[in-house]
TrEMBL record:
Note on cofactor: Binds 1 [4Fe-4S] cluster.
EC number, UniProt record: 4.2.99.18
Chain segments annotated as transmembrane: none
Name of the molecule in the record: Endonuclease III
Annotated [4Fe-4S] cluster binding sites: C195, C202, C205, C211
MF terms (GO), sorted A to Z: 4 iron, 4 sulfur cluster binding; class I DNA-(apurinic or apyrimidinic site) endonuclease activity; DNA binding; DNA N-glycosylase activity; metal ion binding
Gene: nth
PROSITE patterns for this protein: ENDONUCLEASE_III_1 (PS00764), ENDONUCLEASE_III_2 (PS01155)
PANTHER family, per the entry: A/G-SPECIFIC ADENINE GLYCOSYLASE/ENDONUCLEASE III, ENDONUCLEASE III
Amino acid sequence: MRYIYSMTKKERYQFVLNYFETHVPQAETELIYDNPYQLLVAVILSAQCTDKRVNLTTPAIFEKYPDIPALSTATFDELFPLIRSISYPNNKTKHLIGMANMVMDDFNGEIPITVPELVKLPGVGRKTANVITSVIDHQPNMAVDTHVFRVSARIGLTTNAKTPLQAELQLIKNIPKDKVHIAHHWLILHGRYICVARSPKCGECALRPACKYYQKITAA
């Protein structure tokens, strides 16, 4: 098994993807949802907030507002108490109501499933749109959150990427289109549980043979 100094970028990608395909063949979001509406609400709420906290919060929202038409009738004072425990509840309350109203007014009540359309919605940036389209429709879109950004740079899948968009473009250039939607989850979960921000668990990591970060710390 060759270490990073003898690996090309193509070989590094192949090593990482082959490992995940073999050992983590099923990977999906940890947000709990039953349909595109519920996923969109959950992803908007998940910005700078843990999936665990979101999953504790959404059941009450979905019970009171089971779909887009129902949410579009919500007032700030009605919705805010349901998401008070989420980070930035003021903005997210406004975003959810604004999103539901725009879907009703501009998209005939149907959640759009393309990135250019989704980013028009309040509270939906490129990352959120990439999540929705890749999870719901398996489109080859890579959502780059802090986990994906960190893991990709450490391993060496990205090089000198300064922004999430730069990282996204490098990743989708090198990952086969049919693997992009699941690779997103592989990288997130690896960053969440193994390649954590502080004190990454390199001793437990099977990606060490292809990891620039591991090579660097062991060579020091």
